[in-house]
Prior knowledge:
Layout: H1 3-18, E1 27-31, H2 36-52, E2 55-62, H3 68-84, E3 88-92, H4 95-102, H5 106-124, E4 128-131, H6 136-149, H7 153-156, E5 162-163, E6 166-167, H8 175-184, H9 201-216, H10 221-250, E7 251-254, E8 258-262, H11 263-269, H12 271-284, H13 293-305, E9 308-313, E10 317-322, E11 325-330, E12 341-343, E13 348-352, E14 357-364, E15 372-375, E16 384-386, E17 393-394, E18 403-404, H14 405-411, E19 424-427, E20 430-434, E21 437-438, E22 451-455
Parallel strand pairs: 1-2, 1-4, 2-3, 4-6
Antiparallel strand pairs: 5-6, 7-8, 8-11, 9-10, 10-11, 12-16, 13-14, 14-22, 15-22, 16-19, 17-18, 19-20, 20-21
Amino acid sequence: MERDAYFIVKQVENTMNRYDMLIGCNRVIVALSGGADSVCLLSILRYLADRCRIQIEAAHVNHHLRAEASDQDERFVRDLCEKWKIPLTVKDADIKQVCMERKISMEEAGRDVRYAFFDELTHEKPDARIATAHNRNDNAETLIMHFLRGAGVDGMAGIPYTRGKIIRPILDLTREQVEKYNRLMSLEYVTDETNQENVVTRNRIRNQLLPQLVQEYNPNLVQTLAQSSEFVRADRCYLEQAADQMMKKALVEKDDKKAVFHRDEILNAGFAICIRVLKNTFAQWNLKVFPEFGWYWTVWSAIQRGSAKQIWYHNQIAVQVEEGCVRVLCGKPEKETNHFSCELKRDQFVWVEPLCRNVWMGTAKRSEENGFYFDADKVSGPVLIRSRRPGDFFYPLGLGGRKKVKDYFIDRKIPLEKRNQVPIICCGAGIMQVGNHIDSRFCISDDTKNILMIKF
C-alpha cells in the first residue's frame, strides 16, 4: 500500500477509535452500493479487519429505479465481493411501490427501506455494526440543506458518526480523499448517473451551490462546516443529557397517550430544555411532528403564566397547563370543531392553531411590506381572528357596497368544507378583512395618520 493511501486508512482507523465504533462488535456489514464511497469504505475495512479483529461482510439493496443500471450495480457488487471473498446479502426492493403505499418521496422511501434492511441484519447478527459510506462532503451538503429548510440544534449537528448500530467510519474523509484513495489503490466502482441530474435538492446543492460557495466564499467550507457541526453536536449532547435528567426529575406519570410533568421543574429548567423535553416525548411516542418555533414559544408562554387550555398542533399533539402540571397529550381532540376564535395582541405574535401559523399585529409605516394595512383610528375594541359566523357581512374593497360573507364565499367558489378555515379579522366596529380581502371601511387613505398592520 502506498504511503498516501496508508495515511487515509490510518485516518479512518483513528475516527473509529475516537468514536468507539467497534466496542462490542465482532462483525461489520458494509452498506455497499458499488459507488466510489462504499467501495473505498469496504477496501479500508478489509485492510483493517485483522488489526481490529472483525469480520467484514457486505449488504446491497437493489432499488430497481434505474432499470438495467440497477441490475448492473448489483452484478458489480456480487463480482467484487466474490473477488475479495466477502459474504454478501442482497435485498430486492420495489421503491416505487413503497412510495405509492406510504405517499412519500423516492428518496425517503429508499432510505426507509435501506435502514429497515439494516435493522433486520443487526437483529439476526447482534454482534454486527452497519457501516455506511457517508463522507465529509455529504455532511456539508446535509448541513446546507437543513439550513435552507430551517433547522435547530439537531439539524445543524450534521450526520452523526454513530447512531445505534450504524457507524460511519469515513465521515472525516473528504470526497477528494475518497477519490484519491480509489485512484491509488486502482479500485473500480460504478457511477449513478442520476447524481448528476439537478432535480432533487441534494443534487443541486452538491453540483451547483456547494461548489459556488467553495469557489467564491470559502475554499475550506467543507472542513469549516464539519468543525461547526462538531461544536453544535457538543451543545446537543449537553442539552440531551440535561433534558434526560429533567424528564426523570419532572415526570409525574406517562403512558402512550399522555405525559404529565411538574410545571415548576420545567419552568426552572428554561425554554431550551422545555423544547427538548417536548421533542423527546414526541419521539418516545414515535410521532413524526415538527412544530414551528412559534408553537413552542406559545407553550412556553403558557407555562410561564401557569395556565392554558389545550394548545394543539395539527390535531396530533397538545399541551395543557393547569394545577401546577404540564400535560402533554397525544391524539386528536375529543371534541373536534372547525370553528375558532383568537384575540390578537398588539406588537406580538399569536399562534393560531387552526391556521398552523403565527399572526402578528402592530403599528407600521407605509413603506413596510408583506402584511395587511388598516387605518388604526377606525379600529375599535379587541381585534379577533376567527372563522365565519351566521349573519357575517362586510364591505369588500373594490366590490362596491355591503356583501354577506356567505355570498362572498359563493362568488369566490370556495368549497363548503373549506369555508370555516378562511380567517376573518374583526374588531368592535365590524369585520376588517375576509381571507385576503380588506373591508373598505378600514382601508388606509391619504388622510390616514396611524397604520395598523397584520401579517401571517
